[in-house]
Amino acid sequence: MDTITDALTRFAHDWLTSGSLVALVLVALAAVAALIAGRIVARWPQAELQAPGERAVREATLLAVPYGAALVVLLAARGALGLTSVDTRLLNLSLELLGSLAAIRAIAFLLRVSVGRNGRLRTWEVRAAVFVWFFVAMHQLGWLEAVTGFLDSISVTSTKHGEAPLTLWSIIRSLFTVIAFVIISAWIGRWLERRLAVVQGLPANTRIAIAKFAYAFLIGFGALLGLSASGLNLGVLSIFGGALGLGLGFGLQAIAANFVSGFVLLMDKSIKPGDVISFTGTIGTSTEGFGWVQELRGRYVVVRDRDGVETLVPNQNLITNQVINWSYSDKRVRLKLPVRISYDDEPEHAMAVLLEAAKCSPRILRDPAPVARLMGFHDYGPDLELRFWIADPEAGVNNVRSDVNRAIWRLFKEAGITIPRAQLDVRMYDANGRVIGQGSLPARSAPRPGDPGAGSPLAPHHPTGP
């Protein structure tokens, strides 16, 4: 078996000839061409690419252009040098290495796109591609036997009677086998998830539950198959299973609870993608924590609010806390707008104006029709309330309230109906009980006794007596 030193010596003797300097210069030019092409493509204006297919096409272009530019330069140089007597063996080897790297990157990109679009997968895509290309390059250079022999000579565990030693090469080979089985399982799981997404005979939550369970089962089954194919005795996993159970009992309680809660949410159909929910802790049409359910994941639910912010809510919070589901069984919701008028105004006239204001928005339902109610009598005037229904809370709630409030303000101005302000009546008496000054102030701006200018808003009557 060749050693690494022997392989390097043979490479220097066979390939480093008089044409090696020319080949190295051409390889450097190809690298510069790839760098320039990559920067040019990266400067292209980025539109708002919302479709996953468009994003994948852009990523593929950014990946393919640098490799394509380098290959074109090397192929052109190979064609030009073929007409001369310069040795092109090193240039041919460079073409093989670059071609294998481009092919491996393309395969890794396709696998990553087919499995998912997680940002962490993109990072591991590059690392895995470089790792695989390393061994492919060793094979193309003729060094693979020397490298594997060197790695196989590094023993991790001591040799026991009747058992093969655990070496660094066996570990790498086992990891590669397990990763290959997991990738295949993930690809099958994603394919099954896409197939279930178009099945119309099953409810959305049932489809998601089946897809998530099948994906998790396939990943675990693929990992076990990979371990078995790598030659590992699965009986040793019983110790790991006991440790995992102990960890779930102590440190992983929240994670396990979130996963179980996620399956409960999927099965009981209380929350599904597209629902409009809000987190309040109280019952009613409050818009605190208002948002749309974008996606149900194993550990959390993705909720997007009207500001475009996506909040990751742990599944356990949706199980243990009160959540308002605006579209659970019926999307129609009733909104209430309280209004106070002056005692100088006629309540019946004001309620008719409120009903007229409810016609300002086409989103307000006519069946059931809006109603106005006299709810009580306050210190400063009667309390009225306008009630109306909408059928599309996913389009927003506060925007409808704002439109109706603006219409109420405009119509009240036109009808001469007053919305009273809280006021304080102040009177000043002399020693004989006669009024010497009086006035009124808004309650929020009333001066405190002893403040400078506290009596300035009043219209005092100067006493005429002693």
Task: Describe the fold and architecture.
Helix 8 (204-229) packs across helix 10. This protein starts with a helix and ends in a 6-residue tail after the last strand. Helices cover 53% and strands 14% of the residues. The chain has 13 helices and eleven strands. The strands form three sheets. A five-stranded antiparallel sheet has the order 4-3-2-1-5. Residues 444-466 have low confidence and may be disordered. With 466 residues, it is α+β, with helices and mostly antiparallel strands. It has helices spanning 4-15, 20-42, 52-81, 89-115, 119-141, 144-152, 168-197, 204-229, 237-250, 253-268, 315-320, 347-357, 398-415, and strands spanning 276-279, 291-296, 300-304, 310-314, 323-325, 333-340, 371-377, 382-390, 423-429, 435-442, 459-460.
